[in-house]
Design a protein that fits this description.
The protein has 493 residues and is an alpha/beta fold. It contains 16 helices and 19 strands. The protein has 3 domains: 203 residues, FAD/NAD(P)-binding domain (3-Layer(bba) Sandwich), CATH 3.50.50.60; 108 residues, no CATH class; 124 residues, Guanine Nucleotide Dissociation Inhibitor, domain 2 (2-Layer Sandwich), CATH 3.30.519. This is Phytoene desaturase.
């Protein structure tokens, strides 16, 4: 049967699910997206209360070229759905020894900043970014946009030819140390690993390509936040014929003659199924044991990306000390990474991120108020009983006041906490991870779970557990790769 004759249910409406739905509908399939929660976007959902609007999950708009390419695949342009604004500064960093620095969109200015910390670091940055740009251009075209799910897919001349010169060996820590000695500069070059769910010592050096994303492509803000991007892709899907069903938590995926039965609040009877839900949840909770591609012990043995302790705060007045994106970093952050990956516990001296979208967007907060959320990466699976949450909330507020000069306590008019158990409950997230599988050396490329189910023909997967991995742009691409797998199996001829 041809793809254009298929009915397909996509479970979950994260960026992977929204993306695959667009590609499949554009190929002629009858596509329905079935979402557990009351709004679309998965982890990129929104919280609206008392005149404040928060992006609950991702808030950095990086790799604008990926979004441009996505919309171009359908003959559209990004600007038809939302506008973007480059941020200046890209972000501000407060080091906990009293030092602070702004990272500017002007590369020459940034080189001067690096030079002030370490003689020769300005030129080293330029050299580093040249390597990063090469890794990005070659890596994206030949290793990200092209799925290689089997080891033999890597054993060909095209792969070897394009891999020459890439940073395929070693960790990010080793790679960065080749260019910069000053620990603060190393931190600046490595902070993006948080978006990949890794640590400097366990993330492949290839991911230095993220510095090209950061310094060369820039940090942008989309109109309406990341929720505005969700709206734009949803609108595109509707134009292509996708139907969306919210408040439909799926409880089972069952086979039937000629297709599947997907049990939710309603029952759906598609020919094919794509799951953008948590991969482990799909296999362990929605499929019978004999249909699982991986055992529970497999999922227990994986390294998961961090969860997060999130404070959504509506605050009286302005927050002049903070930028739209602000990072607060201890001068030695190895202990925080160890408390995530090695000996899990609540970080005593955390590295964290503050987002103040009201610096750029007046619509996210009432007049005279600011919208702020704080995000602390923490180990998945920690105990987060109310007494622990309250204690950690106080620690974070104290730390913000001490290291940025912003005392929020008497100014908070709206507050909500979201952390480990909430990720598990709202998104069926394994161990409450905020992102999925970490990009460790053993969980990259062919070592990630495949887009095709290993046991169930006609069942596919997309999203951050699959290739190319974690992050909004990667999930968009994952949707494309999954759709290509479906189209390969059901070609229109």
């Amino acid at each position: 049967m041809k793809l254009s004759e298929q009915s397909i249910v996509v479970i979950g409406s994260g960026f992977g699910g929204l993306s695959v739905a667009c590609y499949l509908a554009d190929a002629g399939a009858d596509v329905r997206v079935v979402e557990k929660n009351d709004g679309l976007g998965g982890r990129a959902s929104r919280l609206e209360a008392d005149g404040f609007r928060f992006d609950m999950g991702p808030s950095w708009y990086l790799m604008p070229d990926v979004f441009e390419r996505f919309f171009a695949d359908f003959g559209r342009e990004v600007e038809e759905y939302y506008t973007t604004e480059q941020l200046d500064p890209h972000y501000r960093i407060f080091f906990k020894d009293g030092d602070d620095v702004d990272i500017s969109p002007d590369l020459e200015e940034t080189k001067e900043t690096f030079e002030a910390y370490e003689p020769g670091a300005g030129d080293a940055l330029e050299e580093y970014l040249e390597k990063s740009e090469l890794n990005y251009e070659v890596g994206m075209e030949h290793f990200v946009y092209e799925d290689r799910p089997r080891f033999r897919d890597w054993a060909d001349w095209d792969v070897m030819k394009n891999a020459r010169g890439l940073s395929l060996v070693g960790s990010m820590q080793d790679h960065v140390e080749n260019y910069f000695d000053h620990p603060k500069l190393q931190q600046v070059m490595q902070y993006t690993l948080v978006f990949l769910g890794g640590a400097p010592n366990n993330t492949p050096a290839l991911y230095n390509l993220m510095s090209h994303v950061d310094f060369n492509l820039g940090v942008h803000y989309p109109e309406g936040g990341l929720g505005g991007v969700v709206d734009g892709i949803t609108e595109l899907g509707e134009e292509l014929g996708v139907t969306y069903h919210t408040d439909q938590p799926v409880s089972a995926i069952e086979g039937r003659a000629g297709g599947f039965k997907v049990e939710a609040r309603d029952t759906f009877l598609p020919d094919l199924v794509v799951s953008d839900a948590d991969y482990a949840h799909t296999e362990l909770d929605l499929l019978p044991p004999e249909k699982r591609g991986y055992s529970e012990s497999y999922w227990d043995s994986r390294t998961y990306a961090p969860s997060a302790f999130l404070l959504y705060l509506g605050v009286e007045g302005d927050l002049d000390e903070l930028a739209h994106h602000t990072l607060v970093l201890p001068t030695d952050w190895e202990t925080h990474f160890a408390e995530i990956f090695d000996d899990p516990e609540w970080p005593a001296d955390p590295a964290y991120y503050l987002c103040v979208p009201s610096k750029t967007d007046d619509s996210v907060a009432p007049e005279g108020h600011s919208n702020l959320f704080a995000l602390v990466p923490v180990a998945p699976g920690l105990d987060d009983r109310p007494v622990i949450r309250e204690s950690y909330r106080n620690l974070v507020l104290d730390d913000i006041a001490e290291n940025t000069g912003v005392d929020l306590r008497e100014r908070i008019v709206f507050e909500e906490t979201f952390t480990i158990d909430d990720f598990a409950d709202r998104y069926n997230s394994r161990k409450g991870t905020a992102l999925g599988l970490a990009h460790t050396l053993e969980q990259t490329a062919v070592f990630r779970p495949p887009h095709r189910s290993k046991e169930v023909p006609g069942l596919y997967f997309t999203g951050s557990y699959t290739t190319p991995g974690i992050g909004v742009p990667m999930c968009l691409i994952s949707g494309q790769l999954t759709a290509e797998a479906v189209a390969t199996d059901y070609p229109d001829q």
